[in-house]
Design brief:
- With 471 residues, the chain is an alpha/beta fold.
- The protein is 45% helix and 13% strand.
Length: 471
Amino acid sequence: KIMSLLPLVQCYFVVNAPTRRPDRNNNDNNNNDNADEVKAPEQKKQDDDYERFWEFTARHRRTLNIYVHSQHDLLRGTFRSLLWHPHKVLDFDNKHRYFREQLSEYRRRLGVRPATKLLVRRSQLFADSYHQMKRMSEQQLQGRLQIKFLGEEGVDAGGVSREWFLLLSREIFNPDYALFCAAANKNNVFQPNKMSYVNPDHLSLFRFVGRFVGKAIIDGQLLDAYFTQSFYKHMLGVRPSYHDLESIDPDYYKSVVWMLNNSIDGVLDLTFSTTADEFGRTKEIDLVPGGRSIEVTDANKEEYVRLKTDFLLTKSIRAQIGAFMRGFREVVPAGAISIFTEKEMELLICGLPDIDIDDLRACTDYHSCKESDRVIQWFWQVVHDMDRQERALLLLFVTGTSKVPIGGFKELQGMSGPQHFQIHRAAGVDRLPTAHTCFNQLDLPDYSSLDKLQQNLLMAIREGSQGFAFR
């Protein structure tokens, strides 16, 4: 019965769907409060029509995903606008399938290349791989790799390559190379090291890592390499928001949230400058010209937070990001990867985890609520009904990573060591749940119905920090 309605739905898309992709960074631009007042009437009407279209398609996301799953060519035609839908209505599986098809077409245009052989020593895995991959051409990077471990008889029919990808994905985080540092709240999630310049070849090595991660993506190889959400955003060309500060400096993130939600006039003594500490030396850096002489007030504090976030998450590691992205884009076509969100990038690189919900529930602590409460019972009912993708997104939303600890959820790590999954009772009714990844903490409001809880929880884990800046 649903499929019989497809022709009507296609007609609706032909008439109402936008034909161009909106700017993904628009949510961060908060200087256009009066934009509606200066828009031409025709443009404002078109924007209103598009907004109604986005809302309609978001309400019917499950039906649309059924259509796309059964007839994937729809994404090349009438349903193409779903690829850039602001509410991320497409399931990861449908996006992934489309992405693989795009890569296959790209590789066909480049032509078939013979396999490139890499001979590596286990004791020098990183160095041998680096020196050989940096000499590879674009065509070779798109072709198949054939890995040979020196002194071993194994023939690479796929298994040796999988082992190489896995081992090297762990080696890139070796502190001896000084390329990455662990996030403040998770010792198995990594961010580019702003002081990587202590290694004189650091930018060349970052370019190699970008090539390696890109090669794993196009070959469908899964890595044991988990990055911060802000770094995934950089891979996608999306500007990080202040929410991403939580992973690199939880205490500073708390102070930012406080200053945005409270008056700071006469309370905080801040200027449009920041300090950087490198090897024991502290220097002051202006966020704008003459910034150390400009006071931060209630009137300009949002601009200050935006500039400070940009400095901490982008400018301070701009060279490292740029080198990584040069290597990454030499392998992965920029347009092909842009359909994913930052959370889906982790699933693309690391795969969908097998999450044991019974183990997660057994290792959950409750605060200001108890397991027998109606809303908690509803929560676990919704989680049990989730598919693998939705469970992975839930884990990402609450803990900052989709990685399941080897020893189960009793070994889940927080800011100060082992920390159980936590559910805290939050104020309000039928609000979106929020999370604090430093503490593996889900703040769950009360809900008037099971359906309302499911709706809001799924919206929160799918959209995450997208669109929540400066509320």
